[in-house]
Design brief:
Shape: extended
Number of strands: 4
Number of helices: 3
Largest sheet: 2 strands, parallel
Helix content: 25-40%
Order of helices and strands: HEHEEEH
Structural class: alpha+beta
Distance between the termini: 15 Å
Length: 123
């Protein structure tokens, strides 16, 4: 989990730095050419690539590396009972706040693992 958080933070930082570079260029300042490596083709990685492209970076200037043989990260579909179902990304975040998904999980007594993240800090 900590490695995934670090990778997400690194991608987020790259996008922020690129955004700052675009703003500098608009103000007439000269900046270097940017090359970006995005680690992971999950939701965060794909969104980072889209953000960079939307900000004017050409596709040849960034690369997405993915360890799996599919795009989507924790989202994937798998065979189940003669059909296919969606699996992954099944966390319910912000359970201490008003949250319709958490209310449904409690109502239907869904099983799972509770992970308190109060001890995590993202910088």
């Amino acid at each position: 989990m900590k490695l995934q958080s670090c990778l997400l933070l690194c991608v987020f930082t790259i996008v922020l730095d690129f955004n700052n570079g675009v703003e500098s260029r608009r103000r007439g300042k000269n900046i270097e050419k940017v090359k970006v490596l995005i680690l992971g083709a999950g939701v965060a990685g794909i969104n980072a690539a889209k953000t960079l492209k939307d900000k004017g970076l050409k596709s040849k200037d960034f690369l997405i590396l993915e360890a799996q043989d599919y795009v989507g990260g924790r989202y994937k579909n798998v065979p189940f009972a003669n059909t296919r179902i969606e699996e992954g990304a099944n966390w319910v975040h912000h359970t201490q706040e008003e949250n319709a998904l958490w209310d449904l999980a409690l109502k239907y007594q869904l099983k799972g693992n509770f992970t308190p993240y109060e001890d995590y800090q993202i910088r």
